[in-house]
Amino acid sequence: MPTYPQLPQSTLPQADxxxxxxxxxxxxxxxxxxxxGLVVTKLPMQTRWDHRANVExxxxxxxxxFVAALAQTRWFASYGADHQHEAFTLAAHLLSKTEKLHVIxxxxxxxxxxxxxxxxxxxxxxxxxxxxxxxxxxxxxxxxFTGFGLPWLEHAERYRRSxxxxxxxxxxxxxxxxxxxxxxxxxxxAPMMPKPPHQVPVFQGGNSKDARLMAGRVSDVLFMNGNSNxxxxxxxxxxxxxxxxxxxxxxxLRFGANAFAIVRDSEEEAVExxxxxxxxxxxxxxxxxxxxxxxxxxxxxDKKGMWADSSFEDLVQYNDGFKTGLIGTPEQVxxxxxxxxxxxxxxxxxxxxxxxxxxxxFGRRVIPLVxxxxxxxESRRLTAVGG
Length: 387
What we know:
Blueprint: H1 16-20, E1 26-31, H2 51-62, E2 68-71, H3 87-97, E3 102-107, H4 114-128, E4 132-136, H5 142-146, H6 155-174, E5 177-181, E6 186-191, E7 202-205, H7 209-218, E8 221-224, H8 229-245, E9 254-260, E10 262-263, H9 267-279, H10 283-298, H11 312-315, E11 327-328, H12 330-343, E12 347-351, H13 355-365, H14 367-386
Parallel strand pairs: 1-2, 1-12, 2-3, 3-4, 4-7, 7-8, 8-9, 9-12, 10-11
Antiparallel strand pairs: 5-6
Helix pairs in contact: 2-3, 3-4, 4-6, 6-7, 7-8, 12-14
């Protein structure tokens, strides 16, 4: 592992939601900017992917308790997503059409140069007055690289490149002229003006050991695939330990959990909806996705990367969202979210079958219950402290 200089310390103001996230769990949603929705199923769904619908969803979300939206990035068809809106373009559009919502743009090192992304994000931050974020995704879809004539790196190397990518982002944002000499990128005294007027939160995806350690060193938020409490705890503990090892305050690091939410009036109805999604799965698309991602989990030295132990049913939601367990009544789902918060999860990244009505329903029926439970927990904590 190369020795890098200390990350520059930002003196810029943080987003309010980021500062609050240790006290209140925050909510984000997947932007459906690719066709096929958030599950690989032939079950009819009320979810649209065009830019007008996404503006509607963004406005609904910011009015109903969501602080952020994640625009995924796809270039080639996978998991049935044969049409895709480019993430940076759509993110800028959503920022221009909203007032409070933060938009997280996914970006692949190797397909984008970090200095260009730093400039894009700085401009988006200026225009949106501090509502732009970046999600650095090391990549699992080999064809998106080789199809564009670009090299495909092995797992550990992809994460080493991503770490350099993030170091350059933060250097460009916080230093008058940034210099960086790594194995993948070289920056020779590059200026960048204007700087972003706010700290741009850097999200990162990954479950593997490489991802955990990288997050501990350089990232602000680690997005994790769906998991059990034990699985989440292991990832969080590893990332925090690495942050301490490199002399970083572990409280600088937040954790997000992917979750596919099915909220219904009864638990039976929610479970039946899940069953219908899986029974109507697009078998060919799910198997194709499984073939494309199986090396992502198995190519790590400890075999603990994303999708390493995902079943066919898990892969119907392509980031293992069923595993997180947001399936049931509003009360059951709120209880589960508070449980995840106590495990160490700071943000829930939601996907839905029917964005046309479930996004608003979740904000109206679940988020207020979570806030009630958080207040109750805090009241009990203060009572216990007071003796």
